[in-house]
Design brief:
alpha+beta, 15 strands, globular, 3 helices
């Protein structure tokens, strides 16, 4: 009887061991080409590149090696190389927020940063302190600012030309509050803006708003 129990236990151990999934774990550091060991954000673009925001710029990984983009190889555009987030937009370009809460768009075709915060300052005569960016699949990105004064809606196709920036404030009737918690796009193409005073829905029509067609 003891032999039978022992055989059953051995058989159970063998079966359990053979059904365990194999997991290959690999760790990347600056020795492998990563810009910094402090990683603050990670996203994947449509071309399957992995993007990372680090304390020393942003970098992408193509499955073989890392490529880093920061002030020393893209010009003196950034106010800080310490980046907080990366968020791909509908065109495959990458939104990035610096440590001092300034907003940049990295043009993945020209490999250059666009200082969107500076564009907003010049157009609207206001200095923004950005909390988050919500890029949507319909070609628009919401820029949510700290405080309760204003937010911005950006056209992904026009921003590379310094255009397509719209200021959104509650007093214009577009939102119930300037304090935006989150922005989502549903399957019907409606934008849900969750604010401190409830939710608002926006549905852009190409005839009414040709700019966003």
């Amino acid at each position: 009887m003891r032999r039978q129990i022992t055989l059953l236990l051995l058989l159970f151990i063998v079966i359990t061991a053979t059904t365990q999934p194999l997991c290959n774990v690999r760790t990347f550091t600056v020795r492998d080409g990563l810009a910094a060991n402090n990683i603050s954000g990670m996203e994947q673009t449509k071309d399957n590149l992995m993007w990372f925001s680090t304390w020393n710029g942003i970098c992408c990984f193509d499955g073989y090696e890392f490529t880093t983009f920061r002030n020393d190889n893209t010009g003196k555009v950034l106010t800080s190389n310490r980046m907080l987030t990366v968020r791909p937009n509908s065109r495959g370009d990458v939104w990035s927020l610096s440590y001092d809460r300034n907003l940049y768009l990295f043009d993945t075709h020209s490999c250059k940063f666009v200082n969107v915060g500076e564009l907003i300052r010049k157009q609207f005569n206001t200095n923004i302190n950005v909390r988050a960016v919500y890029p949507l699949a319909n070609g628009r990105s919401w820029v949510v600012c700290n405080g309760d004064k204003e937010n911005f809606l950006i056209n992904d196709s026009l921003i590379l030309y310094g255009q397509g920036i719209e200021r959104v404030v509650a007093k214009d009737g577009m939102l119930r509050s300037n304090i935006i918690k989150k922005v989502l796009l549903d399957d019907s193409g409606r934008e849900w803006i969750l604010t401190a005073k409830g939710a608002s829905i926006m549905c852009w029509h190409p005839v009414v708003c040709p700019l966003y067609a």
